[in-house]
Amino acid sequence: MNFLHPSDGVDHSIQIFAVPEPATISLLLAGLGLVVLANHRRKTK
Q1: What is the mean pLDDT of each run of 10 residues along the chain (45 residues)?
Q2: How many CA atoms, within 13 angstroms, populate the side-chain half-sphere of residue 21?
Q3: Interatomic CA distance for residues 16 and 3, integer angstroms
Q4: Which residue among 5, 9, 15, 36 has its CA within the 20 to 30 Å range from the CA of 28?
């Protein structure tokens, strides 16, 4: 995101990063855990 300040004429740049919500990270970890559990069960049978 860029903007030009009218008084000094300098072009300022701001970087904005997307931060995932805690629920997104929790769902990702839960899904990964289920994949690991399914893989472990498949190997033990």
Answers
A1: 62 75 94 96 86
A2: 3
A3: 13
A4: 15
**Residue type present at position 5:** H
Q: At CA 25, angle to CA 41 and CA 18, rounded to 5?
A: 150
Tokens for 24, please give them: 């997104």
Place of tokens 């004429």: 9
Written as six digits, the tokens of 30 are 């839960």
Contact, 3 vs 15, CB < 8 A?
A: no
Name which of 19, 38, 42 is nearest 30 in CA terms. 38
